Fold each of these.
Amino acid sequence: MESGLPIDAHVHPYQVHRDARGPEEFAKAAFTRGLPGLVFTEHAPLWYHEPRLHFLSEPELERCIEDCMETKRRWLGKLDIRIGIEADWHPRNADFVAGLLARHPEIECATGSIHLHGPHWAEERDGLDGEECTTLALRETLATVKSGLFSRINHIDFFRIQLQRMGCEYHPERHEEDFREIFVEMVKRGTALEWNASGFRRDFAEALPCDSVWRWSLDYDLSRTYGSDAHKPEDVGAFIGRFK
């Protein structure tokens, strides 16, 4: 089916039911909305046990992969479905992620994210102001790319969630050189940049990256993907008409 729409390359089908119903419901939603396909990118485990909702344990991840692969088989010829993960970058998580990928060769797409507001970053961000948090996040984003573990960087300025929680404003223009350094490294390594729609569901009502960062990225020969970051079927393909 030639719809002219991009694949939704960032969805979380295991968040609601934690079983095979999720991938199937997401596939049905994508097909109904005329999308050519999906990349299932459930949140991978961390190097330590984190019981928050969106991090799967490794046994859960194994079941998720099996269920997603079964959905992929059922929709063969109707949807382009790929099996991926969204793995959190942290210097202490790098070896764990490398091992996870080695143990699960069925993972077709390993994508990297920084969730600076997460508890695993509490020590590093302690005592920092908004600008220092931004500098930290961008330095670690560059490290994420240089690690070579990931084919794509997700929602590159998602750290603005932490700034919002701190009551700080986001000033990307003060960090243009840092973003451009990241883009240069991404081009060298063939790392894709995601346009993530989840920001439209937040108070700032803007895509991630924000418009100015996205415009800077257009100066570079980067691969680009669209991601709804859907955690429920009704959000699959959300805001796709705004993807640039």
Amino acid sequence: MRPWDGIISDEEQRAYRAAGFGRPSGVGKRPALLIIDVQYRTAGTTPMPFFEAVKEFPTSCGEVAWKAIDNIRLLVDEFRQRGWPVLYPHVAPKNQHEGGRLAEKVPAIMNIAANGYDFVREIAPRPGDVLLPKKHPSAFFATALTSHLIDLQADTLVVTGCSTSGCVRASVVDAFALNFKVLVPQDAVYDRSHVSHAVNLFDMSEKYADVAPTAEITETLRKI
């Protein structure tokens, strides 16, 4: 069962098929793994139900984050074993004077405790990984990500992290626009809204990326 089944109607799914959307893009020869915003600010320091988690960090997604982190860890292990690059686009601490429209739209995001910006230990960076602080949703916007990917000669991006409907989606769209092949493990991304998570996975699968479970994507990567 796909994440959007029961949310996107069968008729709407047929409409996309009839229009020719949703064809697979496949995988290239030089993949890179993006781990977007997997910090305690989006996961909480321990797995907790959502309304408990937001008491610790208002930007936390609760237990769904930790389920995704288990799968991200599998992908990290696979990439490290293969010697493939792992990159960490992440939200940088925000100063009050640089909030811009984000501070107006979501004021709580400007008051995250310092430890909220730490990477979740289970998938934390190691020496040699690329760290990319960012201020906006897309991992590409005003960062050196494209430059790093060119240097690495990457042709395929596996995009994981948070949130499915926000920074993951924005990064996937930009990656697609830059002509990378994009894979999104549907159980290695997370969002505070189940509906938004599912709808955005569907939309990405139809237009911008190949969306599949982590196990399936791992098997595809092992054929490279």
Amino acid sequence: MSGSRTVVSGATGLVGRPLVTRLLDAGGAVTALTRDLAAGAGALDGRALLARWDGLRVEPEVLEGATAVVHLAGEPVFAGPLTAKRRRRIFASRVESAQSMVEALGRLPAERRPAVLVCASAVGYYAPAGDTRLAEGAASGTGFLAEVCRAWERAAAGAEALGVRRVSLRIGIVLSREGGALPRLALPFRLGLGGRLGDGRQWVPWIDRDDLVALTAAALSDERYRGALNAVAPNPLTNAELSRAVARALRRPSLLPVPGFAIRTAFGGLADELLGSRRVVPQRALELGFRFATERAEDVLARELGAS
């Protein structure tokens, strides 16, 4: 990475911060897109260059001459009820921002464009399929998140017509105590109220944060990485298995299953994302020789929750 410059959106987030650190430690430069320059400087210890943006639009000059772009920013999906307003914000923060990235690339001279765009996507792309293993060629779903993911990936794929290599990372649940789904998942167990969701047989694709950062770095540097890539560990768990593993890590009981109707009442249009079974596997990453440092969710949970 020495001599490179990577533009990163979502640079102060759960995955962005360790990715920026990795790129900088490798000798590269990083331009972090941020809405708050002071907060961005503090979160990144003043090591990265900073460029202001509004979360949707990026100016071509920020991208000009960069080696690569990583687009991780997006409105949190499970941060509240799926109202019409939140649907618009979720869509815009992912799809419109990716479109803006590609439009900005298109306004640059070809010789000044970054060589690669790595853009986040999500396993919500896939249709629930029971116990069937879902590699990158599996069918997409019909719900809101599947529609967002398809549009998100189409927007990023526009970079290919400009001669820019594109990778869309279909990311599973990132298991980290520092944010994302795990703290919310663990809270009921901390209170002694945790349990499986519904019948617990639905598969849950997950990934250790360090592996996700390493996979993103590999996608930046290795030209064989192209198109959709499942960013998940090789061994998904069922929801019941995951619930028991969280309970063991916290030394709490896992006794109270949450019935499906209660989940649908609480989460409305997002209930199918929790109850649907997606046994997503990282077929393409394994074919490319990527080695996951952590393949057992139990090991991640013991590390992230065991000392808390």
Amino acid sequence: MSDFWFALLLTIFAGLSTGIGGLLAFHKKASSHTFLSFSLGFSAGVMIYVSFVEIFVKGKDALSQSYGVKTGYIYTTIAFFLGILLIGVIDKLVPEKENPHEPKDPDDFKFKEKTLLRMGLFSALAIGIHNFPEGLATFIAALDDRTLGVGIAVAIAIHNVPEGIAVAIPIFHATKSKKKAFGYAFLSGLSEPIGALIGYLLLRTFISDSLFGFVFAFVAGIMVYISIDELLPTAEKYGKHHVVIYGLLAGMGLMALSLILFM
């Protein structure tokens, strides 16, 4: 299989894992505080570990080869914080009630059907906005290094599962249709492969080791921001502190194991 198709399939897998969340939303445990606390902590653990241990280091190595050790490290650091800035701005532009990184407490689903449907549809739209740069990052990483691409895809896929739940639950409560709830959750992840293809078409003439380095550092910043600013605080809101920590450590452990297995 060519590198292009391998990278695209990985990106599709990562993006459409929101559909898994759509399926889990119909299970009563999926809407429990314990499940949400653990799953969000798990996602944060995966993303924080892979960002600092693998992605940031990969970006620094690439940029150090192109610009020298000190300058390369400076560029890596700048790209890292630019990633944080970008996702921070996106979060500011997305209303909190529709933010996919703010899963709603199932006890809050006591609104009118139109309100719930709007909540689910806006969550799907917001997820599309958030996932666009993630898709490009997965795709570019897999083009350069299949092992790293798999690691990033796994991290983003796990992260996308709770987002699928955030879309499916309000739509299901509003429409009473599992088919519609799953469909919207599944389709909300399409922005990742779309983002990958658009980004590739725009950047393919500029692809180089230094570009890979900037992209790696950039996405590391995005993933760390999402984990620290959104996933962990939201998980803590459910009052399951130790469950969050267990999920965080389990996510780090799984990511560490997956990186070792694919070395």
